[in-house]
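To: structure subgroup
Subject: Chain for Friday's discussion

All,

I'm putting the inputs and outputs inline so they're searchable in the archive.
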Amino acid sequence: MNVGTGRFAPSTTGPAHPGTLLAALLCWLDSRSRGARVVLRLEDLDPERCRPELAHAMVNDLQWLGLEWDVVEHQSANHARHVAALDRLAALGLLYPSAIGRRDIEAGGRRAPDGGWAYDNRERGTALPAGGWRAVSAPLRVRLPDGVVTPVDVGGLELAQDPVLSFGDPVVRRRDGAIAYHLASVVDDDASGVTHVVRGRDLATSSATQVALRQVLGLPVPTYRHHLLLLERIGHKLAKLHGAVGAAELRRSYSAQQLCGWLGAVAGLRPRAEPCTPADLLHGFSWEQVCRDDILVNWTGERLEVANE
């Protein structure tokens, strides 16, 4: 029985790395264990950083690992629906131009939950020109309703937040004309019928903003699950494991089954890193098995190793 739809939505601004592959595997296992459809959506809207060869490599690397998808789509092909959403927001009187620069936002001195800087909504009273949003060259923001939003994370992570205070009204169209992440993600999830969003916990703080945007557009709200991250040490700080090694290097050191087995073991799905396929991990898959804590990993130049603190 088909129960809902999941999606994996990697950005195509660089190669797949161990964290990408783990997130793809967990999303796939979640969907397939429920008998659900699963969509691969290549987020390729950034005109400066996204390149076709990176999107092609992402598809190829995920296929190499043994993951198959019911639908593969390029977000850049969805421009018409993104524009329709901007028209809808404009008709609701919620779009406004935002000329304030990043330095001015930083000067406000208020940190957002993701470590960035919160926008103070100072331009909310700015009206669109007579020509509408298409006549605006500055970024466009959407005025979200004030108040706490409470998305549901089925893994128990607390997602409640007042996004207007925590982050400020989000940009929905960038200065370069590209549709911004929040709007494109919300609109495309709805078009694909996504009911379950499974992703790394680094994206958890974006959930309330996206739910508020869904509510404004009258779209249904999915359930969320945010899972562990693979981390690397950069100086004295920990960051997502992506700068150390990409998929091309991994494929020179591991077979697909070996890497799948390593990912399964590090996530807690297998006691040892023995070669296997995603289909092997699907048998008996349960989120109760999956580690909750982030994991520090080293790339030796030849192998991935779980690091000791």
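Points worth raising on Friday:
The radius of gyration is 20 Å.
Residues 79-187 form a domain with the Rossmann fold fold (CATH 3.40.50.620).

D.
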